[in-house]
Amino acid sequence: MIDLRKMDWPHRKHGPLQSLSSSVWRVEGPVPGLLVSRQMIVVRDDQRRLLLHSAIALDESRQRALEQLGTMTWLVVPNGYHRLDAPAYKARYPSLSVVAPSGAAPRVERVVRVDLLYEQFPTHPTIRFHVAPWPNPMEGVLEIRSAEGTTLVFNDLVFVPPRSGVSSWPYRLFKSGPQVPWLAKRMIMADASRLREWLLRLSSTEQLVCIVPGHGDPILDDAPAALRAIAASI
């Protein structure tokens, strides 16, 4: 495990803090060394507690803006590969509770201690975790209820291809849309039929208005239909 006392704040490249709803924000930035973006989702509950999903270390001005939104309370590491900035956040905000899926916890704990598994997250009026439908899942889904509707935050199990840039051309060539990417099928998906059924159930989530992938733009246009299409493509 990394010695948090020796952690420096990394100041990653990233875009602005964007509002997805009255209680949900998004920050996108490049994955260091790769031609793909990643995103942090920030959720604020009615007690002004903040949940950070797949954290990105921001520059000082935007980090201070993030701090003004509420109290740093939960740090969600959504799988064992989205842990890059988790140690820096835990070092800067020691009171954060680190949350991870059970199957990802051993890899996450190589860099930061896990306090809660998805299944152990306390009952909350607007925040809920779902786990993938097989033993020791490496991923799950964060469900957020707000005044505007329900947002489902996925990670590597759902991918939205980029619409521009060098990395977008294969997807544009083959007209590929939102999908379960091949790497997730090989490394995360344990059962295709169970995943398909699970995504179909999630597509019936009440007032579903937004799907957030681990990489790519949020799906805001008919989110239930998009999730059904993803399920059908598996």
Quick structural summary:
With 234 residues, the protein is α/β, with parallel strands linked by helices.
Report what the structure shows.
The radius of gyration is 17 Å and the shape is globular. Strands 1-2-3-4-5-6-7 form a 7-stranded mixed beta sheet. Strands 8-9-10-11 form a 4-stranded mixed beta sheet. The chain has a single domain, classed as Metallo-beta-lactamase, Chain A (4-Layer Sandwich), CATH 3.60.15. It has helices spanning 60-69, 86-92, 105-108, 169-173, 182-187, 192-202, 223-232, and strands at 18-21, 24-30, 37-44, 49-53, 71-76, 97-100, 116-117, 127-131, 140-146, 149-153, 208-212. With 234 residues, it is an alpha/beta fold.
Q: How would you describe this structure in keywords?
A:
234 residues; alpha/beta; Metallo-beta-lactamase, Chain A; four-stranded mixed beta sheet
